[in-house]
Amino acid sequence: MIDDPDSDEDFLIEEDDGPVPQCAARAAWKLLVVDDEPDVFAITKIVLADFSFAGAALEIIPAYSRSEAEAYLLQHDDVAVLLLDVVMEETDAGLRLVEFVRVTLGNKLVRIVLRTGQPGYAPEKEVILRYDINDYKEKTELTTQKLFTTVVASLRAYQHLLDLERQRAGLAQIVHANQGLARHQELDEFGKGALAFMVALLNAGGGELRRREGQGSTALARQGDLPESAIDAIDAWDGLTLRWVDGLVLAPIPSRTDSPVFVCLGGVSSVDDGDRVLFGILAEAVGAGWDSVLLLGRLQDAQKAIVYALARMAEFRDAGTGEHVRRVERMVRAMALKLRVHDDYACLRDEAFVEQLVLASVLHDVGKVGVPDAILNKPGALDGGEKRQMQAHVAIGAEILAEAAGMVPGMNYIALAAEIAANHHESADGSGYPGRKTLDQIPVSARIVSVADVYDALVSKRPYKEGWPREKAIAWLREMAGQRFDPRAVEALAAVIGESSFPTEGQHRSEAVNC
Question: Locate the HD domain: which residues (predicted)?
Answer without folding.
Answer: 321-458
